Structures are given as structure tokens and as C-alpha cells.
Amino acid sequence: MKVSDDPKFEAWSLDTLVRFAYESNTKLKEQAETIASLQQDLKTAITGYRKLIKETHDNTNTTH
């Protein structure tokens, strides 16, 4: 099966579909948590960068 091929869910047994649904749901939750964590990391990095730029700018202005 190629990556671009869609699975044939209609051929799956009910037990397999239920297991797949639970596993997919768990994976989606984990990915959502990872995304939220990365978004917070990005916000923290941007805040630190802005602070560094401001401090650099302020130090440049006080030395001239």
C-alpha cells in the first residue's frame, strides 16, 4: 500500500475499526499536547528574543 492510498475501512472488522479509533484518538490527544507545548515554547522564545533585542538596543543607546 502506498502512503497516498486510503485504507479500505469497509473491509475492516468492527473490532479492528474500534481499536483503530481508540488508537487514533490517543495519538491525536498526544499530538495536541505536543503542539500546545511547542506553542508555549515558541511564545517563551519570542519573549526572550524581544527582551534581548530591547536590552541590546537600550545598551547601544546608552553608550552613544
Shape: rod-shaped
Element order: H for helix, E for strand: H
In terms of quaternary structure, the protein is single chain
Number of helices: 1
User: Helical proportion?
Assistant: over 70%
Global structural class:
mainly alpha
Radius of gyration: 24 Å
Main sheet attributes: strand count, strand direction, barrel closure: none
Strand content: under 5%
* Overall average residue pLDDT: 92
End-to-end gap: 67 Å
Low-confidence residue ranges? none
Number of strands: 0
Outline the fold blueprint:
Blueprint: H1 14-63
What does this structure look like?
The protein has a domain at 35-59. The protein is an all-alpha fold and 64 residues long. The chain starts with 13 loop residues before the first helix and ends with a helix. It has one helix at residues 14-63. The protein is 78% helix and 0% strand. The chain has one helix and no strands.
